[in-house]
Amino acid sequence: MRLSRYFMPIARETPKEAEIVSHRLMLRTGMIRQEAAGIYAWLPLGLRVLTKISAIVREEQNRAGAIEVLMPTIQSADLWRESGRYEDYGKEMLRIKDRHDREMLYGPTNEEMITEIFRAYVRSYKDLPLNLYHIQWKFRDEVRPRFGVMRSREFLMKDAYSFDLDAAGSRRSYNKMFVAYLRTFARLGLTAIPMVADTGPIGGDLSHEFIILASTGESEVYCHKDFLSFAPPPADIAFDDADAMQAVVNKWTSLYAATSEKHDAAAFGALDPALQVSARGIEVGHIFYFGTKYSLPMKAVVNGPDGKEHAVHMGSYGIGPSRLAAALIEAGHDEAGIIWPDAVAPFAVGLANLKVGDSATDGACARIYSALGKAGVDVLYDDRDERPGAKFATMDLIGLPNQVIVGPKSLGEGKVEIKNRRSGARELISVEDAIVRFGGAA
Fold it and tell me: Tell me, what DSSP letter sits at residue 31?
């Protein structure tokens, strides 16, 4: 993509309304634009990041055996009355009526709807276990939306729902999602620590929040230091191996980890002080087992091996890709701007032409741009007639992990400069080597 033809409205000044770094940088880089309190438009740069995050989430859900569907954002109030949650949910639910005066709502979550879908089609235990997920926009009318997309009213959510014959089967499904979440966050370059959590309005008696440590986190969390060096589950882990799943869960729940709501000061204080970590944390995922909370009132039953009807046991599993975009910035930034992990950077390579109109720099940039494009590498080519300092600042601000800088001086020696955004390391290499370095064919 040529920057001269791209829509990336960078703000020169830091927005005054932004309280935390991710909100400031997302507005400054033109990733998002606020349209109403807690409601944002995702502009091209932000949408590229959001799409890449969602792709990783989707890949790991599929790997774990979940099956993708897509449910509507507008739901019937009648479904929520069946479960008993319509009156209980509170003002966070946006209640509306259609032109026929039917009571509807903008879905804050989808337990009721997925249960209705399940009961319409599944009759036998032989069709279990089943895990259905979607990636869809949600709305919760937060009393005080703040921190940009970190706590917005409209947000993108991956929510999965598992169905099993009994509690033991449901626990196996829970473990699969537990492991899938560890893998998802590791692929995003994050160390997410699972912490026992309150179930809130979702219900149930087993729940974990996945927390990343960040100085601008919303809440105080406490954990054992060894979590910070735990290796994530490998890519080839067998999700159908119940023992392997349980072993991973056992490892990641073997040490102390708690949010402020679940904090046990005495248990934490018993740890060696050198192993105590007290920090701020950001929730990036939440999983729940809630048994028959929805299947009993909504009559979601299957015929069991004993010939009798059984209310299925359920769990739900949420990750917010839109929230993750902000969390990644909170975890990765410096004074110059964003430091994206390679996996979700809006562009893999930033190509800066320091003397637009010069035949040598124009030719070298065209060659690099064409070769990497043919290889499927996302390149943002800064071909604007701007001073070099502005181009350097833009590349650093938007966080492109790899930068290729083409100037007449280095090119006179047959070289271009390569810069790594995260480490700041620079080196001079040939045009051919630069193409090969980033995945092209010289």
Answer: S
C-alpha 427/C-alpha 93 separation (Å) is 54
DSSP secondary structure letter of residue 279: E
Q: Which two tokens stand for residue 177?
A: 């999602």
Closest CA to 194 of 164, 168, 174: 174
pLDDT digits 0-9 by tens, 70-95: 999 999 999 999 999 998 898 999 99
What are the tokens at 28?
């400054």
User: How many whole angstroms separate alpha carbon 392 and alpha carbon 411?
Assistant: 17
Walk along the chain (442 residues) in steps of 10 and give the mean pLDDT of each run: 96 83 96 95 98 98 98 97 92 95 96 97 97 97 90 96 97 97 97 81 72 87 95 96 97 93 93 95 94 95 97 97 96 96 97 96 96 96 95 97 96 95 96 92 68
Residues 6+ apart with CB under 8 A from 124: 302, 303
Separation of alpha carbons 246 and 239, rounded Å: 10
Q: Contact 246/239 with Cβ under 8 angstroms?
A: no
HSE value, Cβ hemisphere, 13 Å, CA-based, for 262: 18
Q: Convert the pLDDT of each residue in 395-429 to its tens digit.
A: 999 999 999 999 999 999 999 999 999 999 999 99
Angle between helices 44-63 and 167-187 (to 10 degrees): 140
Cis check: omega of the bond before 129, within 30 degrees of 0: yes
Q: Say how many residues make up the chain.
A: 442
Distance CA 68, CA 132 (A): 6
pLDDT in tens, 280-322: 999 999 999 999 999 999 999 999 999 999 999 999 999 999 9
Give dist(CA 162, CA 173) in Å, integer.
7
As a whole number of Å, the end-to-end CA separation of the chain is 20
Number of neighbouring beta carbons within 10 Å of residue 204: 17
Exposed / middle / buried, residue 300 (Cβ in 10 Å: 0-12, 13-18, 19+): buried
Q: How far from the centroid of its chain's Cα atoms is residue 203's Cα?
A: 23
User: How many C-beta atoms surround the C-beta of residue 412 within 10 A?
Assistant: 9
Strand ordering across the sheet containing 103-106: 74-76, 103-106, 94-97
What is the spatial distance between Cα 195 and Cα 277, in angstroms, rounded to a whole number? 13
Question: Nearest Cα to 49, choosing from 319, 266, 322?
Answer: 322
Yes or no: say if 359 and 325 are a contact pair by the CB < 8 Å rule: no
287, 160 Cβ separation under 8 angstroms: no
Query: Which residues make beta-bridge pairs with 417?
Result: 405, 428
Give the whole-angstrom CA distance, residue 231 versus residue 227: 9
Burial of residue 153 (CB within 10 Å: 0-12, 13-18, 19+) is buried
